[in-house]
Design goal:
One of its GO terms (biological process) is putrescine biosynthetic process. By secondary structure, the chain is of the alpha/beta class. The longest helix is centred in the N-terminal third of the chain and has 22 residues. Strands 4, 13, 14, 15, 16, 17, 18, 19, 20 and 21 form a ten-stranded mixed sheet that branches. It has an eight-stranded parallel sheet with strand order 5-6-7-8-9-10-11-12. The chain is built from 24 helices and 21 strands. Helix content is 39%, strand content 13%.
Length: 724
């Protein structure tokens, strides 16, 4: 066991500070005795401490990739994350190495890459299609096996991810089984109308959310355009607008009502369900709506019942309870004379973020697609058969379950914190001890006694007390910085010697949590975060992730599995270290802001192909530039550039006037400076790892290399006037 004998090598006594050399009453530096207490082991820790040989399969178990990632993500033999685009039907040669995608996208154009800057969102339309087909197949199987006498046709709630290509893909992939869209605002309704013009004519267009006259007029116009539109009443007073505007526009509407259920789940995502939920009508209000429609001779227009138990429904027991209650309301509406056709069970189909398959967590669900579908079909069939009511068409708004898996956020660690304490020697430790004040030396005596007795918890207590006492003395001015640094090193050594794990490191990542993972900051939502390569190596350290923003909340210090740190590999300054956040395809992009003026990531669309690397990049979009995010806050980058350009010309001209006759060409310098300024507006706000520090005419101005600038800037023509 190493001796407790060390000191900062460079700790020389500063002038004006008293040292009590040669105090024989102090115990000499001692060695620790006894055996350090065994650390508390967790499943993760036991894997990390498993045999000296490491393998990709051990990394897969450590990060629980098979638990939360199946059937779409795994670790290949190279130690990289592999994408299985067709789920369980993916053949070995169809797997896509995620690291190869990142390299293809981020490598400079000069070597065959796309020159895009990280962070990066990788979209996988093949996974999206597989999710849609799997959901449809699960309901088809449940319907067939239970003898259900109607069909299932879902809708995608576009609020989950409004990206044009995501919505268009869903409409195209879902067209064979009449998959539709759900909108909750006027812009969402416009995009849904446009996309469904190319979809199945029987696909539903469900209009949810609070509505005014414009919203309802637009929905009625969609009906005129032969789109299968249903206006769902969220508030009782919306009925007045529907009746008045439908008469004015000569459109026979199809109407739905959203019912407030008594069924409610207690998790975070259940806050919009139950009688006190934000949306929907009570049974009393529904009865008044039925009466009003009957009086207007429009009761036949009421054809859909909509409910929402809550997102991330944890168990099929709760699901069946809520759907059974909804089926009772549906049957009552049929009894009252409504021409009911569709039971829309809303969202709630959850995904397993942490792989625990638990029904007692907001991060997990205790079922799969098959169990979910079977529970819905059985609950509705049981109620309708008992009431002798025709089985309704089943609809769900399963956005999270459809889009979460198809999108991966890739970001890079740019640096990592290391121990700041200086190394110590035996001789220096005696010097450090003798320099302590009397009360601090008392703490040291107690610490030494605890060491001899093997009381490691007590030892840590006195070490911390010694450290705090020295901090107090430093604030009073009675000790110097050298001694303060020495006590840090001393306490760190104490921890190492008694068997404490290495302090958790901070990995600085090229990312904004507020922009790309806003749900972590806002509601504490956890997502699987994993290194996408080097998984054939044992992770040697544990760390948290700190983003680029000037905000103390800009960090990730909670991870799936209840962990407060993440197993990571040693940061190699000369290499790249990529991490991926998975299952984040729903909500994160729409919710992200521009805190510190960091914009969104670059985005690529990657499909499986028969090429040498099993993939092709079918679309690549650079992330918003500095100019783009400045425009969001009402700034005008072109005018800002002109202001800076004139300022530069003024000062460069001043330098030329003050020159002692040198023949340097300041005109070239001005042109290069203008070009450099333009590039700063074009580049993304994030750090550029491949930045080329090329001086312009020895003037000390630097700009990024051509590939990075071109990829971030988009069309350079709009800035052509910027380059002299």
């Amino acid at each position: 066991m190493p001796a407790l004998a060390c000191c900062v090598d460079a700790a020389l006594a500063p002038p004006g500070y008293a040292f009590h050399a040669g105090d024989s009453s102090l115990p000499s530096p001692v060695q620790f005795s006894g055996v350090p207490p065994a650390p508390t082991t967790t499943p993760t820790a036991s894997i990390e401490n498993s045999p000296s040989h490491w393998s990709p399969s051990l990394s897969s178990a450590l990060y629980k990739i098979d638990a939360w990632g199946a059937p779409y993500f795994s670790v290949n033999h190279s130690g990289n994350i592999a994408v299985r685009p067709y789920g369980t039907d993916t053949l070995a040669h169809q797997e896509i190495d995620l690291l190869k995608i990142v390299r293809k996208v981020s490598d400079p154009k000069s070597v065959g890459g796309l020159g895009l800057q990280l962070p990066l969102i990788v979209r996988l339309p093949d996974v999206l299609k597989n999710r849609l087909e799997s959901l449809q197949s699960a309901f088809n199987f449940a319907i067939q096996s239970q003898g259900y006498e109607a069909h299932y046709q879902g809708v995608y709630p576009v609020k989950c991810n409004q990206d044009r290509f995501v919505v268009e893909d869903i409409v195209r992939f879902g067209s064979p089984f009449r998959f539709g869209l759900e909108a909750g605002s006027k812009p969402e309704l416009l995009l849904a109308m446009s996309c469904l013009c190319k979809g199945n004519p029987e696909a539903l267009l469900v209009c949810n959310g609070f509505k005014d006259g414009e919203y309802i007029s637009l929905a009625l116009l969609a009906r005129k355009l032969a789109l299968n539109t249903v206006i769902v009443l969220e508030q009782e007073e919306e009925l007045d607008l529907v009746l008045a505007l439908s008469r004015k526009m000569s459109v026979r509407p199809v109407i739905g009502v959203r019912a407030k259920l008594r069924t409610k789940h207690s998790g975070h995502f259940g806050s919009t369900s139950g009688e006190k939920g934000k949306f929907g009508l009570t049974t009393t209000q529904i009865l008044r709506v039925v009466k009003r429609l009957e009086e207007a001779a429009m009761l036949d227009c009421l054809q859909l019942l909509h409910i929402h138990i809550g997102s991330q429904i944890p168990s099929t027991a709760l699901l069946a309870d809520g759907v059974g209650e909804a089926a009772q309301i549906y049957c009552e509406l049929v009894r009252l004379g409504a021409h009911m056709q569709v039971l829309d069970i809303g969202g709630g189909l959850g995904i397993d973020y942490d792989g625990s398959k638990s029904g007692n967590s907001d991060l997990s669900v205790a079922y799969g697609l098959e169990e979910y579908s079977l529970a819905v079909v059985q609950a509705v069939k049981f109620v309708c058969d008992r009431k002798n009511i025709k089985h309704p068409v089943l609809c769900s708004e399963s956005g999270r379950a459809i889009v979460s898996h198809h999108s991966i956020l890739i970001f890079e660690a740019v640096s990592a914190s290391v121990s700041s304490a200086a190394s110590m020697t035996y001789a220096g430790c005696q010097y450090f001890i003798e320099g302590l004040t009397e009360d601090a030396r008392s703490d040291y005596r107690n610490l030494s006694a605890a060491v001899v007795r093997g009381e490691h918890d007590t030892c840590l207590l006195y070490a911390e007390q010694l450290k705090q006492r020295c901090v107090d003395h430093f604030k009073e001015g009675s000790i110097g910085m050298e001694q303060l640094a020495a006590v840090d090193g001393f306490c760190e050594l104490v921890g190492k010697v008694i068997g404490l794990s290495e302090p958790v490191r901070t990995y600085h990542v090229n990312l904004s949590v507020f922009t790309s993972i806003p749900d972590f900051w806002g509601i504490g939502q956890l997502f699987p975060i994993v290194p996408i390569h080097r998984l054939e190596e044992r992770p040697a350290v544990r760390g948290i992730l700190s983003d680029l923003t000037c905000d103390s909340d800009g960090k990730i210090d909670k991870f799936i599995g209840g962990e407060s740190s993440l197993p990571l590999h040693e940061f190699e300054g000369g290499g790249r270290y990529y991490l991926g956040m998975f299952l984040g395809g729903a909500y994160e992009e729409a919710l992200g802001g521009v805190h510190n003026l960091f914009g969104g990531p670059s985005v690529v669309r990657v499909s499986q192909s028969d090429g040498p690397h099993s993939f092709s990049v079918t679309r690549a979009v650079p992330g918003p530039s500095c100019g783009d995010v400045l425009r969001v806050m009402q700034h005008e980058p072109e005018l800002m550039f002109e202001t800076l350009k004139h300022r530069a010309e003024e000062f460069c001209h001043h330098d030329e006037d003050s020159d002692d006759g040198g023949d340097s060409d300041h005109g070239i310098g001005n042109a290069a400076l203008a070009s450099s300024l333009a590039r700063f507006f074009h580049n993304m706000p994030y750090l550029v790892a491949s930045c080329s520090l090329t001086a312009l005419n020895n003037g000390g101005f630097y700009y990024c290399n051509e590939d990075a600038a071109d990829s971030a800037g988009g069309d350079e023509d709009q800035w052509s006037y910027c380059c002299a």
